[in-house]
Design goal:
Low-confidence stretches: 77-115, 117-136, 140-154
Strand content: 15-25%
Structural class: alpha+beta
Number of strands: 10
Shape: elongated
Helix content: 25-40%
Number of helices: 11
Distance between the termini: 79 Å
Order of helices and strands: HEEHEEEHHHHHEEHEEHEHH
Largest sheet: 6 strands, mixed
Oligomer: single chain
Length: 335
């Protein structure tokens, strides 16, 4: 293929190339399918050197069988000057432990280092004041009944004083993508996504298979290596084909059309076996029908084995007969 021909063809994989006209036609069909859902459209553009490039959202379905592990926190680290750590960092159980504070009665000092002065002034009204010796709340007047008088436990105090910390944690969580509503939690940070659940990732036609996998892992803050996974094109017929490292997943999606009923892209474990079209044709058949096919194949196998045994037995008998006749002739000559 000449340089001019290479510039006029768009690479999809090692055996598939398309022209710009074909790409435009595929884009038109794809975007018409999604209609007014412009956020799902795939847009066309050109690089500085004039090469065509497309960009858009790619639907990927979870198909991993091994557990995945979410990162403890986002890349945006908590400033080192912060004294009070968030519960998900300093406690592996996701709750406050007494050993984390040197002195329970210095919590207010820790709080002042965490909250700006302006916020601290506004938040004073939201918190009750307590006696240092008993941790009982101050009250302007005695309750009407002793039964209504309730002391505040130390654990409750800590929860109230760390309220702003949990809110900061919630804010950080909101900036983190979830897998079907699953956010990072220490007790469930290692889990397996539901098979067939759908997600989306924004990519372009310059990104190959491994880059798309890395983009997906980065979106959900997954610690596992991209080398542990592979992308598979799963067809409605049951055929399951693994995308090679050099393939362009977004262009594969365009070639298969916009409908997920025809084909879907799955993220699976790298050692997942492919399913050929010959094997896939039997997958959707009824169990009893498959049993009858298997029985016929076994019968045919037995007939073929018997035919081969008979043929070789006949050939062996002819050869033995020839050997015996030659031995008789040799004996008569010697005598």
């Amino acid at each position: 293929m000449t340089a001019h021909q290479c510039s006029s063809w768009i690479f999809v994989n090692e055996r598939t190339f398309i022209t710009r006209e074909q790409l435009n036609s595929l884009l038109k069909t794809y975007n018409i399918f999604y209609g007014n859902q412009t956020n799902l459209h795939i847009v066309y553009g050109q690089t500085e050197d004039g090469k065509p490039i497309v960009e858009g959202m790619l639907d990927i379905f979870w198909g991993v069988k091994r557990p995945i592990q979410l990162k403890i926190q986002d890349e945006k680290q908590i400033p080192s000057c912060t004294v009070l750590k968030s519960p998900d960092v300093f406690s592996k159980r996701g709750m406050t432990r007494w050993g984390e504070f040197d002195d329970l009665y210095h919590i207010s000092e820790l709080e002042r280092t965490q909250i700006p002065v302006s916020q601290a002034m506004n938040s004073q009204e939201d918190y009750l004041s307590y006696h240092n010796s008993t941790l009982k709340p101050h009250t302007d007047e005695e309750p009407e009944s002793p039964l209504l008088y309730r002391t505040m436990s130390e654990a409750t105090l800590v929860r109230k004083r760390t309220k702003h910390v949990t809110m900061d944690r919630k804010i950080r969580q909101d900036h983190r993508a979830s897998i079907n509503g699953h956010f990072y939690n220490h007790e469930t940070s290692i889990f397996t996504p539901a098979f067939g659940s759908e997600t989306k990732v924004r990519i372009n036609s310059n990104m190959k298979t491994e880059e798309v996998i890395k983009q997906l892992l980065q979106k959900f803050k997954i610690e596992n290596s991209a080398q542990d996974f592979a992308l598979y094109m799963v067809f409605a017929t049951g055929e399951q084909r693994r995308l090679k490292k050099t393939d362009i997943p977004l262009l594969h999606r365009l070639l298969q059309g916009p409908s997920k009923k025809n084909a879907r892209i799955f993220l699976m474990d790298k050692d997942t076996e492919e399913i050929s079209s010959d094997v896939a044709q039997y997958i959707n058949f009824h169990f009893s029908f498959l049993e009858s096919i298997l029985e016929k194949l076994n019968e045919e196998e037995k007939r073929e084995i018997q035919r081969i045994i008979t043929r070789f037995s006949t050939e062996k008998a002819i050869i033995l007969q020839c050997l015996q006749s030659k031995q008789v002739v040799k004996t008569e000559t010697t005598v």
